[in-house]
Amino acid sequence: MKQSLTHLPALVAAALMAVGLASCDNKKFRVDGTITDAKDSVLYFENMSLDGPVAIDSVKLGDDGAFSFSEKSPEAPEFYRLRIAGQIINLSVDSTETITVKAAYPTMATGYTVEGSPECATIKELALKQIDLLGRVLAVERNNTLGFDQTRDSVARMIEAYKHEIKLNYIFKAPMRPSSYFALFQTLGSRLIFDPRESEDDIKAFAAVATSWDTYHPNSIRGKNLHNIAIQGMRNVRIVRNQRAAQAIDASKVNTTNIIDIALLDNKGQARRLTDLKGKVVMLDFHVFGADGSTKRIMQMRDIYNKYHGRGLEIYQISLDPDEHFWKTQTAALPWISVRDPQGIQSNNLVLYNVRSIPTFFLIDKTNTLRKRDAQVKDLDAEIQALLAE
């Protein structure tokens, strides 16, 4: 049958619409550039999803270090990274932009340049600030002239000053920007710098970004996640505040010590308190048995325990493993005190002891006074012997 000419405009319009929809579905962004001095290294392009990094593509670099990755444009701002081994460059993508990165290995994490995205440039600023903060924190923690309280207070002041600067100049200044979202999830070691589980002020920062993302990126999964974090944080803070208000302190039950007490169940179901070990030299150890290198470290601790336990050394080891059965299996033959924190890496004990990486240990003297953390110990045998001799 011959097609009526009057139907042609509608058919053309429908065809054009179909082409337009197809082109929308095929919108892509591109990340290209060069990373020199990395011949034969594998460069990974990863999406930083809410569940962690997901590999999208990779390339083995040649003499010139050139690379190019292309991916479907996200519906809302999304986060990616370029990685060679432990060297990482963080990126944000909003639409169909072309982002050009130039760097040299092995200093690509700090020495790169980025073009084509103001947000990626701001994320670089934030990453460099976070690296600088980490360096200053480690310098304080490794300072042998500082006691535990001085170290803790100095680190706390540095972190608070950092948070104030980032909130003032980035988060509250432009909460709708991807770089503000990125700032909320910066870490020191394994812990968030902005912690909505503990701080009402940090909750406000999460809420500000969440509200802005509702406006600029409605229904995005990251915006919903921010809301959930802020709401849960407010609940947690409210519960803690109510508990503190309801508790009356009985002065007769106060145990005066120079250490923050920890009370957890050991692998036999018995409650073990850190302060009950007063009179002994104690190695307080935070450990994950499921982590790489665990077996070797446990063997080293066995040597220390065997040498000094008879002279008054005790090990109080806190497992942060999520699987209780696995932990019990791993610790069944260990001779020291093995307890498990059911909160895992979200434990408040990690916050109280300013634990930035795991494994970590502290040395406690016979008076229940915390003396040094691992970063301040150059010769473990010498330190233990000195404490035992006091």
UniProtKB/TrEMBL annotation:
Localization (cell): Cell envelope
Pfam families: AhpC-TSA, DUF4369
GO MF annotation list: antioxidant activity; oxidoreductase activity
Protein name: Redoxin domain-containing protein
Protein source organism: Marseilla massiliensis
Residues of the DUF4369 domain: 29-119
Domain Alkyl hydroperoxide reductase subunit C/ Thiol specific antioxidant: 259-372
Annotated GO CC locations: cell envelope
InterPro entries, A to Z: AhpC/TSA, DUF4369, Thioredoxin-like_sf, Thioredoxin_ResA/DsbE_sf, TonB_box_CS
Main location: other
UniProt keyword list: Cytochrome c-type biogenesis, Disulfide bond, Redox-active center, Signal
UniProt signal peptide: 1-24
UniProt keyword annotation of Cell membrane present: no
GO biological process annotation, one example: cytochrome complex assembly
This protein's record includes keyword Disulfide bond: yes
